[in-house]
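BUG: 3D viewer hangs when loading the predicted structure for this chain

Environment: internal workstation, default settings.
Expected: structure renders.
Actual: progress bar stalls at 90%.

Input used:
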Amino acid sequence: MEPQIKKVVLAYSGGLDTSVILRWLQNTYACEVVTFTADLGQGEELEPARKKAELFGIKQIFVEDLRETFVKDFVFPMFRANALYEGQYLLGTSIARPLIAQRQIEIAEMVGAKFVQEVHAVSLAVEKLHPEVYSVIELGGQDAKIIIFKKSERGEKTAIASMNDKCASGTGATIDKCMLKVCLPPEEVVKIHFDDTKLHHVAAKCGVFAETDIVNLVKSGIPRNEIMNSLADAIVSRRQLALPLIKHTA
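Structure tokens produced before the viewer hung:
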């Protein structure tokens, strides 16, 4: 029997993945969802996140300014330690996650809520809605997740998850920024036919480098459809690195 969940605090960005999880929590558990959005300097993204939460019927919405603590206790120590991802790139979105999680748990205790981790929520949703699926690659707003379901001899499924939250490369944030740089709205991007005969170099491992490559292509007069095809090819090539892991663990 599943435990009864009455209230959940969700770390909410207002993006696609957290909005899907928000609705899933409401529909699956018929529980009250409290949203928490940390202000780490994203500025104009905060108010849209609040308004979207209101559209979902959220009554308790926390938007808290954590910028000073973030810079003092996380960013400066990161610079002093010369912390690098893959020995090459400065850490990106991941450096904020411990602070967000810390405050999220404090809010959960304050409002008397259960704490649900995002990857666990995605695993539950896949098991419930698509029990035939045994591997998931999800491109979130700021991270990428791989979830592998393994079945025991007794037929029980176990989720094994890994997450790349060190760099936003190939995630929704990078895609959104690149679409802005080529001045193409999402409804136009989805109409583009993929053509691999005219691809250009776009960095696959780093979102910042990818954006720089996109800007250079725009300045060089490369057609917008070729630029977006090149970005898509870079993202797919990056995700293909995960396929041996899925094959090995399945």
